[in-house]
Amino acid sequence: PRLANQIAAGEVVERPASVIKELLENSLDAGATRLEVEIDNGGIKRIKVRDNGGGIDKDDLPLALARHATSKIHALEDLEAVATLGFRGEALASISSVARLTLTSSRDDSGQGWQVAVSGRDMQAALAPAAHPRGTTVDVRDLFFNTPARRKFLRTEKTEFNRVDETIKRLALSRFDVSISLRHNGKGVHNLRAGLGRVEMERRVAQVCGPAFMQNALHIDVERSGLRLWGWVAEPAFSRSQADLQFFYVNGRAIRDKVVSHAVRRAFADVLYHGRHPAFVLYLELDPAAVDVNVHPTKHEVRFRDSRLVHDFLFGSLHRALADVRP
Ligand code: ADP
Ligand code: MG
């Protein structure tokens, strides 16, 4: 079973950023309103995610790590089929098979919780009491310490840190209601307070995208025939490194999509300059039945039922908003 987990780990555990994404999704699933991420060496040496969610029952702690997975993989030949189905329900098992993982959790406010520790294939999930406030802490050390082949694919500390940072930013812009902090090598990188007011949201956007973005940004909020587009767009001229300042969410989920990027690019190119990267933080909201988010296992892709309608709505809304400020 541990071997199966290591194989499975290739699906969800590619690098520190993917570990963090899985851990944070678990925290949000558990209803957390505060996420604290601490990493060392770009996350290669250590990843610690602490949340204030509902926690895990003592009896469920070993299960959370052991639960698999194996029923899905009977032979290597199945791997391809599994990959296309998408792999859910084994993030913790996968991570713990390729790292030293400690899971500590408490369900109440007694200050008392429980802890299990696993180290690679050594599945000694011994349960021990541990002090912990309500919520869960997952501590992941020495990623890929027992899988040198996979370890080779890790990039420099700086590159891995950048990917972690990108993951945190993408999440931060989708959950203004949750406070999020990131520390790297003991130093604070982000400390984002929760808040759903316009001022609080714009403060967070400025923290994530930089003050220059917010100073140049135009706020838009357009609603037509069941579609709503809101957020901030900025003239592409304000900074050189804005290629990464493109955040697009469909019903709260970060996505990359050809229909979307085409519509956005055309609207910008039409009104502003050609050949530059537009910068934007945009949220498209529509009837969940009009969009299929399960096209791709990582769920970064979507399929719109009426992509023509979505394209024209995006293009039209952005074009009008941009033309208003720069006729
Ligand atoms: P999945 O999230 O797909 O169920 P995971 O391996 O990511 O699979 O997590 C296994 C289980 O462990 C979850 O279903 C959940 O019950 C529990 N769990 C994991 N992380 C947390 C957390 N931060 N807070 C509460 N429960 C958690
Ligand atoms: Mg999960």
Automatic annotation (TrEMBL):
One biological process term in Gene Ontology: mismatch repair
GO MF annotations, alphabetized: ATP binding; ATP hydrolysis activity; ATP-dependent DNA damage sensor activity; mismatched DNA binding
The keyword DNA repair is annotated on this UniProt entry: yes
Keywords, ordered alphabetically: DNA damage, DNA repair
Top-level division of the source organism's lineage: Bacteria
Ranges for domain DNA mismatch repair protein S5: 205-323
Entry GO CC: mismatch repair complex
Task of the protein: This protein is involved in the repair of mismatches in DNA. It is required for dam-dependent methyl-directed DNA mismatch repair. May act as a 'molecular matchmaker', a protein that promotes the formation of a stable complex between two or more DNA-binding proteins in an ATP-dependent manner without itself being part of a final effector complex.
Family, similarity comment: Belongs to the DNA mismatch repair MutL/HexB family.
Protein name according to UniProt: DNA mismatch repair protein MutL
UniProt lineage: Bacteria, Pseudomonadati, Pseudomonadota, Gammaproteobacteria, Cellvibrionales
Boundaries of the shown chain within the full protein: 10 to 336 of 614
